[in-house]
Amino acid sequence: MKRIRLPLLLTLIPVMTTCGGNSGSPTSPDPDDGLRDPPPATLRTVDDVSLTIRVLQVKSATGGGGDAVLVADSAGASPWHALLDAGDGSAAAYLAQAGIDTLDLMVLTHAHHDHYAGMPGVFAGVHVRRFAYNGQVRSAVTYDDVLELAWAQADTVLVPDEPWTVSLPGGGQVVVMPPLNTWTGVDTDDGEELNEGSLAIRVEQGEFSFLTTGDGEAESNAHYRTSYPAWVDADAFKVGHHGSTDATDASWLDAVTPEVAIVSANGVSHPHGATLSWLSARTDDLYCTPEHGVVSLLVDAGGSYAVRTAQDPRIPCGPGTQAR
């Protein structure tokens, strides 16, 4: 891992945890109301939740709709927080509402606006201890502005060129996997080339694992599948590129083997219907932010987990209204 700046020695500052308890299980649907059976993970209860992973609802109309994933570990003396991407202003607003004023880690998976647009707002209200990104060279003004903020305000800025592991207070870990670097050194605005440079992040707690791969497409997936096969095999998976068909195929799902699949999308250009069909054939635990709002994974120390959604989990996922 290439270190760009050395970390400062800091005293840990207590912040509010975002870990929550359990809510009631959904009732069975009426066969005529268009609802599906309650997804299995929503019927579980988990005691002593120590890790919460929330896929936030990002409503940006640009790109596929953006990503923002908040990880909170409440097992230590001070809660530990990470933000993986910050698609629009909703991420900063969510942190403020939760009373979070420090992020132990913020990751930008790749240099697309619908993944970094909310970062200036985050930097304006939150202290960031470590900022990691893929090192993409790009002269887009808004992207350069985010990197300038990171250099000026984060205690440490990192570009992983080998797997980087961060230990969590509850005994788990976050693993940041280095990207396919074919185009990261090229000043490009090409959407596919930017997508293929996405970082992958795995979060582990006990026997539980969560994976996100940004907007990685076929080449990026092949890179992670062959380089880190054990780390891409995950219980819960935030589906790549907002449910686009260029990021999901049979070989990739064979490698990930998700029990839970979560799609973060705008409900307009994404997700794609074919991807939803692929996922529905693999798991009954399929969630989409346009229908379900914030999707939360609640995990205990041993890795038992449940899913909670802001909106009725019985609502079936549907393709974007303008999706191809």
Would you kindly provide a written description of the structure presented here, covering whatever features stand out?
By secondary structure, the chain is an alpha/beta fold. The protein has a single domain (41-309), classed as Ribonuclease Z/Hydroxyacylglutathione hydrolase-like (Metallo-beta-lactamase, Chain A, 4-Layer Sandwich), CATH 3.60.15.10. It is 23% helix and 23% strand. It has 10 helices and 18 strands. The protein has helices at 89-98, 113-116, 119-125, 141-153, 191-196, 218-227, 229-232, 250-256, 273-282, 289-292, and strands at residues 2-3, 51-55, 69-73, 80-84, 102-103, 105-108, 127-128, 130-133, 156-159, 164-167, 173-177, 200-205, 208-212, 236-238, 260-263, 285-288, 295-299, 305-309. A 9-stranded mixed sheet has the order 1-9-8-6-4-3-2-17-18, with no helix packed on it. Strand 10 (164-167) and strand 11 (173-177) form a beta hairpin. Helix 1 packs parallel to helix 3 (119-125). The model is unreliable at 1-24 (pLDDT under 50).
**So, the CATH homologous superfamily?**
Ribonuclease Z/Hydroxyacylglutathione hydrolase-like
Inertia-based shape: globular
Fraction in beta strands: 15-25%
Kindly state the number of beta strands.
18
Strand order of the largest sheet: 1-9-8-6-4-3-2-17-18
Unreliable runs: 1-24
CATH topology category name: Metallo-beta-lactamase, Chain A
Instruction: Report mean pLDDT, rounded to a whole number.
Output: 90
The largest pleated sheet is described as: 9 strands, mixed
Per CATH, the architecture is: 4-Layer Sandwich
Intertermini distance? 39 Å
> Please, how many helices?
10
Cα gyration radius (Å):
18 Å
Number of domains: 1
Order of helices and strands: EEEEHEEHHEEHEEEHEEHHEHEHEHEE
The level of helicity is 10-25%
Q: At the first level of CATH, what is the class?
A: Alpha Beta
Structural class: alpha/beta
